[in-house]
């Protein structure tokens, strides 16, 4: 192909491409944008919504945005569920008209048509105001069209009748509780600073007090001053934030005047519940009450109630009540990974019927082991495996603060740390379950352990000083040689 011909063809293709882009595609894009914009029913800026009124039958609901929070203003005053308002705002953004049914000038001659379209009276009246429009605008919504893919609507009291999408038709079935914040507390559990749970158990009032220390870890201050199981505490306190109403009640049930469960939560500095106001007597915390009463004629079945100092009384699900049945003992720490191997200076091991074994850690992976007159260099991997048995312990239950451990232990392990602190582990192994008495300078705690919590063969002289065979795991001590 000649060069002139090739250049000519390139020029033709370039010109054709420019013509398609500027003469066809661009005008179509502008036309689509204009049609899309013109078809939207909400003309104001939805990010600037100020008020909303929803009326359907006897239901009349007023909503107002105050200081960036949505509030229900009628028929009652309460905070609105922000996620539900986000859902409504998104639906308004999607609301469009697909075609005009009756123009404004045609309405005078066809007033009876409003009844035909379900607009006299309207099935739904939706009124809204944004900051960029002078007066509230309204949409009157009626029946669905025969194919049920749209709804007839009138734009304003005397406006034209159009067919719209069905994005806000769900509002006809919504009551005030469908907009209401149903949680009894709106603060995230990460912002709790202290919690007190009171529960009446067979007439006896039991209290658990927890607070966060300077490291933002939960500690128990009553009825014990003990470390807590951090994961367990977080899980249990998370349940406070889950308490929500099935429905709010117009009056206070008698059972909430003397509740079985009382939960008092203090928040971190500058944190407030969404419902807090200037008249709030507890602006940086909340109190939640839970109770139950037997159903008439059904003594084994109950109705459950709850309220906070910032909400009305409500019906609640049974599991919210049951969630707070845990005892103070359930919160106490049950793990013993309280040290690193590098922290250890000395171990003293004593099994029932055997003499004491003393292990001295001279430096990393350099141990000396003595039992009476026997002295030998310890095998680091075997000694570390024995220590891991202690570190990996998990108690089934905390029993009590003790004054004196068992006098006939199956195994005792004393760990002396480099910093001078000493940890004592005293075990009593039984057939079905075992017990542990753990103590340090601050605590003396008694626990129930599961069956076979410790493998005793890790803790004898031969296991600690003999090299394992090639077939044995590095974490398993060698078996005793047959005599």
Unreliable stretches, pLDDT < 50, 5 or more residues? 24-37, 471-475, 477-483
Alpha-carbon distance between the termini?
100 Å
Domain count: 3
DSSP summary: helix tally:
8
Structural class: alpha+beta
Rg from C-alpha positions?
A: 37 Å
> How are the strands of the biggest sheet laid out side by side?
4-3-2-1-6-7-8-9-5
Q: Can you give a write-up of this model?
A:
By secondary structure, the chain is an alpha+beta fold. It has three domains: 46-178, no CATH class; 189-331, no CATH class; 341-465, Dna Ligase, domain 1 (2-Layer Sandwich), CATH 3.30.1490. 19% of the residues lie in helices and 35% in strands. The chain has eight helices and 26 strands. Strands 4-3-2-1-6-7-8-9-5 form a nine-stranded antiparallel β-sheet, with no helix packed on it. Strands 21-20-19-18-23-24-25-26-22 form a nine-stranded antiparallel β-sheet. Strand 8 and strand 9 (161-164) form a beta hairpin. The N and C termini lie far apart (100 Å). The model is unreliable at 24-37, 471-475 and 477-483 (pLDDT under 50).
Topology:
Blueprint: H1 3-39, E1 49-56, E2 59-66, E3 69-74, E4 78-79, H2 82-94, E5 97-102, H3 113-116, E6 124-130, E7 137-144, E8 151-155, E9 161-164, E10 192-201, E11 204-212, E12 218-222, H4 230-242, E13 247-248, E14 261-267, E15 285-295, E16 298-308, E17 314-315, H5 318-322, H6 328-331, E18 344-351, E19 357-363, E20 366-371, E21 374-378, H7 380-391, E22 397-401, E23 411-417, E24 422-429, E25 434-439, E26 444-449, H8 461-465
Antiparallel strand pairs: 1-2, 1-6, 2-3, 3-4, 5-9, 6-7, 7-8, 8-9, 10-11, 10-14, 11-12, 13-17, 14-15, 15-16, 16-17, 18-19, 18-23, 19-20, 20-21, 22-26, 23-24, 24-25, 25-26
